[in-house]
Write a structure and sequence with these properties.
The complex is a heterodimer of chains A (about 160) and B (about 500). Chain A is mostly beta strands and about 160 residues long. Chain A contains no helices and 16 strands. In chain A, strands 6-5-4-3-2-1-9-8-7 form a nine-stranded antiparallel sheet, with no helix packed on it. Chain A has a four-stranded antiparallel sheet with strand order 13-12-10-15, with no helix packed on it. By secondary structure, chain B is of the alpha+beta class. Chain B has 17 helices and 21 strands. In chain B, helix 4 runs antiparallel to helix 5 and helix 12 packs antiparallel against helix 13. Classes of the chains: A mainly beta (about 160), B alpha+beta (about 500). Chains A and B meet through strand 1, strand 2, strand 3, strand 4 and strand 7 of A and strand 17, strand 18, helix 12, helix 13 and helix 16 of B.
Chain lengths: ~160, ~500
C-alpha cells in the first residue's frame, strides 16, 4: 500500500510501511529506511544488512523538525501550509502601497510568477504566486494603500492536470 | 567631574535592552525598561529593575516620543538615559533635551551627533582632518572637457552618476578613458529624461570593496583608543548579515593605519563614548571613509569577544567621567569572532519579513557561544518591530573554529515555528568562498544562485518522516521516551495521509 505526505510543500510517496511502538520502516524512492528510538528517546537510523547505526540529531516542534540545519515542515496533503510561512503568500505583511499589479482577474499563473509589487518599510517586495492557480480577484490597483493582513489578491489553486 | 549613575532609563527594547540590563546588573546599577502593550511578556521587561508601559500607538507616541521618555526618566529618578541603537540613539535633539533636563545622555555630545549625522557636513569635516574620502568630482562645471579631465585625475574604473539621481538612472560604470565621453553622453541623456537635469557627478568605482569598521572608545580626559576592526561585508540590501572580527583582509600594518585614522577623527571631534568609523576597503588596500555611527553597534559583540572588554560597561564608566584604564597597546586581540543576525524573513522570497510563534528556540550549549535576543521560546514575532530575532555570536582560536562552531550552534538554536534566514545563514557559512574569506559587499548578489536552497534529499525526507512517525514532534526534548501512545498519536496527526490514487 502506498501513502503520500507533504513536506515543505512537496508531495512524497512511501510504500511498504512497517511499524511498532519504537520503530518504523518504509520504502522511499526505491530505498528502504529503518528508524528506531533508543532508551533516551533519540532517533537511530539503521540500514538493512549493515551493523552500523547512527543517531539523527534533531530539534522539533509540532509537525516540524530541524535536521542537518534544514527546517522540515509537514502539512496536510490536501491543503497548502497556511501559517508560519512567508508573509508574501497573498496577504500584506504590513501596511504599504501597491506599486505594480502584474496580472488581471482570470489569469492563470504558475508557482513563482510575480503577481504584484508592494512597497513596505521603504522596500519593494514582489509578491509571487505560492502555487499554480487562477486569479479570481484583484481588489487593488497600482497606487492603492493597503493595511496589514489584507488579502492582496484572490488566487485559487489548481492541481496539475497531468497527475 | 565624576558623576553618579545609580539608575538608567533604557530608551530601547528587545535584545539591546536586555544587553544593557545585563551589564547594569553586574555593575550594581538599576534599570528602567520601557514596553508597549503587546510587549508585556518580553524578556527586556522582566530583566529590568522596573518597567514603564508606553501603552499602544505608533512609534512616534511610544519609543520615539522624546519628551515622554525624558519625563519617565525624571519620574523614575534616573540619572542617565542609554539610547541603545536605532530609535533615538543618533538623534541630536533628544541628546540635547536629555542634557537640558539635567540627565546624562550615554553617548557623545549633541553637537557631534549632529555633525556626523549630516552627510555633507561630516565629509567636509573629514576632509579637514585629512581622512581619505572616495575620490570624486562634485562641481557645477559640467563642460565635457572639464569632466574628462576630472575623470582622468580620479582614475578608472569610475562611476558617472546623475546629480539629481537615484534608482540607477543615469548611472554608468566606465572602465577606461577611451569609453568616457561616449558614456558621459549616455548618462547625461538618461539623466535629462529621468530628472529633467543632466548634471552628473563622478566617483571612483570600487569593484569588490569590503566593509571594514573601526570601534573606538573615547573618555572625557582626552584618551582616544581604537578596539580594532570588524568586517561586515556580508550584506543584503545594505543590511548586515554576518559580521566578524578581526578581518582577514586587514594586516597588522593596515590595522595600525586605520586605527590611527580613526583616532585622528575622534580626537578631531573631541569625541566621547563608544563609536564606530565605517570604511570601504578597496582590493588595492586603500580605504575610504563612509560614515560614523555615534552609538553602540548591533555587531559590537564580536569586538567584545576578541578584546574581552564590555563596551556597555565602558559607555557607562565614560559617562560617569571615569578615564579609560588601559592604553592602546593593552587592547587585546585574541582569536576570532563571528556574529550572524537571525531574522524572521524568507530568503527564498526576497527576504520578506515573516511572523509567527517561536518554537524550539534554544540557547546554544557549547562554550564560546553567545545568544543575544529579546525573545523567548513560545513568543510571537510580529511586524510591529524589527524582524531580527537574535544575534548568535561564536568565538574560536581562529576563524575556521568560530565558523564551524557557528554552524553547529545554528543547528541547535533553531528556531522553528516561522520562516527565518537560519538555513540561508548556514549556506553562507558553508560557501567555499566564505570559507576562503573572499568576502566583499557584493558576496550575496554575486553568489545568488549558489546560495539558493537545494532540493531536499530523499535521505533527509526519510529522516523527517521517520521522526514524525515516531512521534518526536509531539514530545519535548527532555520527555522523549519510547511511549507507544506517542507513535499512535503521530499516526493520527498525519491525518493528511491518503491512499494512492485518491486524488480529487
Amino acid at each position: 500500500m502506498k501513502k503520500e505526505f507533504r513536506l515543505n510543500d512537496e508531495l512524497y510517496e512511501i510504500s511498504d510501511l512497517k511499524r511498532d511502538s519504537t520503530s518504523v520502516s518504509f520504502m522511499l524512492s526505491g530505498k528502504r529506511y529503518l528508524f528506531s528510538l533508543d532508551s533516551q528517546g533519540q532517533m537511530i537510523e539503521s540500514e538493512e544488512g549493515n551493523e552500523v547505526s547512527r543517531v539523527v540529531r534533531l530539534i522539533s516542534a509540532p509537525d516540524e523538525f530541524l535536521i542537518h540545519g534544514r527546517r522540515l515542515v509537514f502539512s496536510s496533503v490536501r491543503k497548502m501550509k497556511a501559517s508560519g510561512g512567508a508573509l508574501g503568500t497573498l496577504t500584506s505583511p504590513m501596511p504599504g502601497k501597491i506599486l505594480k499589479v502584474f496580472v488581471a482577474t482570470g489569469a492563470s499563473v504558475k508557482k513563482g510568477d510575480p503577481l504584484l509589487v508592494l512597497e513596505a518599510m521603504k522596500m519593494e517586495h514582489t509578491i509571487k504566486a505560492p502555487f499554480d492557480g487562477v486569479v479570481h480577484s484583484t481588489p487593488f490597483k497600482e497606487g492603492d494603500q493597503v493595511q496589514a493582513k489584507v488579502e492582496l489578491m484572490g488566487l485559487k489553486e489548481v492541481q496539475d492536470a497531468d497527475s | 567631574m565624576a558623576r553618579v549613575i545609580k539608575r538608567i532609563l533604557i530608551a530601547n527594547r528587545g535584545e539591546i535592552a536586555c544587553r544593557i540590563e545585563r551589564t547594569a546588573r553586574r555593575m550594581g546599577i538599576e534599570t528602567v525598561a520601557l514596553y508597549t502593550d503587546e510587549e508585556k511578556a518580553l524578556p527586556h521587561v522582566r530583566g529590568a529593575t522596573q518597567a514603564v508601559c508606553l501603552g499602544t500607538g505608533p512609534l512616534s507616541e511610544t519609543y520615539l516620543n522624546q519628551q515622554r521618555l525624558i519625563d519617565i526618566a525624571k519620574q523614575t529618578k534616573c540619572e542617565a538615559i542609554h539610547p541603545g541603537y536605532g530609535f533615538l540613539s543618533e538623534n541630536a535633539s533628544f541628546a540635547r533635551a536629555t542634557e537640558l533636563a539635567g540627565l546624562i545622555f550615554i553617548g557623545p555630545s549633541p553637537e557631534v551627533i549632529e555633525l556626523m549625522g549630516d552627510k555633507k557636513g561630516s565629509k567636509v569635516k573629514m576632509g579637514e582632518l585629512k581622512v581619505p574620502l572616495i575620490p570624486g568630482y562634485h562641481s557645477d562645471e559640467q563642460d565635457s572637457n572639464a569632466l574628462e579631465k576630472a575623470a582622468k585625475t580620479i582614475g578608472f574604473p569610475l562611476l558617472i552618476k546623475a546629480s539629481a539621481g537615484g534608482g540607477g538612472k543615469g548611472m554608468r560604470i566606465v572602465r577606461n578613458a577611451s569609453e568616457f565621453l561616449e558614456n558621459l553622453e549616455g548618462a547625461k541623456r538618461e539623466a535629462m529624461n529621468a530628472f529633467g537635469d543632466d548634471r552628473v557627478l563622478l566617483e571612483k568605482f570600487l569593484e569588490n570593496p569590503r566593509h571594514i569598521e573601526i570601534q573606538v572608545l573615547s573618555d572625557t580626559h582626552g584618551h582616544h583608543l581604537f578596539l580594532h576592526e570588524r568586517e561586515c561585508s556580508i550584506q543584503r540590501r545594505y543590511q548586515k548579515v554576518i559580521e566578524e572580527a578581526p578581518s582577514t583582509a586587514v594586516s597588522e600594518t593596515l590595522r595600525a593605519e586605520m586605527g590611527k585614522t580613526a583616532v585622528a577623527i575622534t580626537k578631531g571631534l573631541n569625541y566621547r563614548g563608544a563609536g564606530t568609523l565605517e570604511f570601504m576597503l578597496d582590493e588595492d588596500g586603500k580605504f575610504y571613509f563612509l560614515e560614523m555611527n555615534t552609538r553602540l553597534q548591533v555587531e559590537h559583540p564580536v569586538t567584545e569577544m576578541i578584546t574581552g572588554l564590555d563596551l556597555v560597561e565602558w559607555q557607562i564608566r565614560i559617562a560617569r567621567g571615569e578615564p579609560l584604564s588601559f592604553t592602546q597597546g593593552q587592547v587585546p586581540l585574541h582569536g576570532h569572532a563571528l556574529e550572524v543576525r537571525l531574522y524572521a524573513e524568507d530568503p527564498d522570497n526576497e527576504f520578506l519579513p515573516c511572523t509567527g510563534e517561536l518554537k524550539a528556540f534554544n540557547k546554544p550549549t557549547q562554550a564560546h557561544t553567545r545568544l543575544d535576543t529579546g525573545y523567548e521560546n513560545g513568543q510571537q514575532v510580529t511586524t510591529s518591530f524589527d524582524p531580527m530575532i537574535a544575534k548568535l555570536i561564536t568565538w574560536g582560536p581562529d576563524r575556521e573554529a568560530a565558523r564551524v562552531l557557528m554552524i553547529e550552534s545554528l543547528k541547535e538554536v533553531g528556531p522553528l515555528g516561522l520562516t527565518t534566514n537560519q538555513e540561508f545563514l548556514i549556506r553562507l557559512l558553508e560557501h567555499p568562498e566564505f570559507i576562503k574569506a573572499q568576502t566583499t559587499t557584493k558576496f550575496i548578489s554575486a553568489h545568488e544562485n549558489e546560495l539558493k536552497s537545494a532540493e531536499l534529499t530523499f535521505d533527509l525526507v526519510a529522516q523527517a518522516l521517520g521522526a514524525k512517525l515516531l512521534g518526536l514532534d509531539r514530545v519535548s526534548a527532555q520527555a522523549q521516551t519510547q511511549s507507544t501512545s506517542g507513535v499512535a498519536q503521530a499516526w493520527e496527526s498525519l491525518g493528511g495521509f491518503r491512499l494512492n490514487g485518491d486524488l480529487p
